[in-house]
Fold these 2 entries.
Entry 1:
Amino acid sequence: MARHLLTGSELTRADLDALLRRAEQLKVAPHSSRALDGRTVALIFEKPSTRTRLSFEAGVVELAGHPMILHRGDLQLSRGESVADTARVLSRHVAAVGVRTGPDELLKELSAVAVVPVFNMLTAGHHPCQALADLMTLRERFGGLHGLRVAYVGDGNNVARSLALLGATAGVEVVVASPPGYTLNGGADRARLVEDPAEAVRGAHAVYTDVWVSMGDEATAEQRRGDLAAYRIDDALLDRAAPGAVAMHCLPAHVGEEITAAVLYGPREAIWDQAENRRHAQKALLEWLVSG
Ligand code: CP
């Protein structure tokens, strides 16, 4: 059985701790591993991406492998070939398969048949690679994870769910503040859910947000902007968090909506480190996946 990373629940606390330590080593010595020497990793993008594409493509090269970028239209999948048959053929050629798509079911179906690792590069339900980079960034900033509190403010979406799931595995308390209709579900058992952003950030070491209009939500954009207007991270909200608290965002940001420019580019942001740490954390993940 190949190892997979579909939601992040595949990782034990010990796995996660080892993976984050390894990511720190790889950040210091980016070319020290040849874990993918001469091997190809298929990276299938059915949705746009900047950070995920850049970090995986560069990361696979740094591990001495070859990243094969595939868009939906490149594959017979787009013309009706089954996911299962696509998995069978991918397994004959590549060392691992990353997928960014909408339905989580597609990933489950692929991983059920593939005999090589399958990993989630974002689905409607989960974004575990983002959460790995987030936890790595928190470790760098605070020297450890256990006992930290992170307040997520805004839409209870895939990013919030993965943060809650992997944060709980690491011993981080995640508090999610959302208005009615945007509450985190399917991950809620791992997080404390509140409505008031000020309540969520009290005592928090990090205050996290994501866009109000995610990919696929464009039809309800104006409604969402209205509903989430009170869930912006600004300096006043950060001031209510613990002393030394940092601001986090998975990006891309919509300045003036979920975050102000003063926070995004200000002294308390950890956001650009999060973006960089995608590469280091994912390299450690790839090592873990192909060594299973
Ligand atoms: N955070 C994130 O996944 O960014 P991209 O959509 O640019 O990959």
Entry 2:
Amino acid sequence: MTAPRRFTGDRLVIATHNAGKVREIAALLAPYAKHFPSAGSLGLPEPAETGLTFRQNAELKAKAAAKASNLPALADDSGLIIPALGGKPGLHSALWAGPQKDFAFAMQRVHHALILSDAPESSVACFTCALSLAWPDGHAETFEGIISGALTWPPRGEHGFGYDPIFIPVSDTRTFAEIDHDAKTRISHRATAFRQLVAGCFAPKDSPC
Ligand code: IMP
């Protein structure tokens, strides 16, 4: 097996238009890159997420941004997986919020779908995240992280984004939206994928090697 390609520049595009993801990825990236513009700030188009897995979608978004910007690009594809709903909303987690990206509505949908499911008392859920780092020549390195937990209703907390107010990580009694930003950044599915990315592809920005 060949070693993952290392990131050696000082500019890296955060290939997402989701402000919540930009905030979390920028905090994770700070020790490893000097400049990390987002796809939104560069006016890059949002590619259609036609992949069949989180991994495939992360790769296609990273490759599209790397090609369009001529810079290495890091993309995230993530979502909430609920076993009692057969894994939904899963790959379609963003779509459940509708064109207005209304996550209060998306969380309601989850709540109603669970009530109507065969296991309405089940609260088991996971967040999963694939992070893909791609270069303008089309090469990509991809890593995945997962965190398990439980769903709660009604939503609680003001931090975070997306489904954070209904998700309680297994190590806590608070929802992701009640935990402060730094604490979520240490334990989340995104942080787990990021640790693997760092081990494979990054050296600290002041490292001589
Ligand atoms: P996509 O990766 O652009 O398809 O969007 C994934 C969707 O999953 C986001 O819009 C959020 O709704 C949800 N999601 C992913 N990660 C998180 C998280 O850390 N907290 C809350 N919701 C998340």
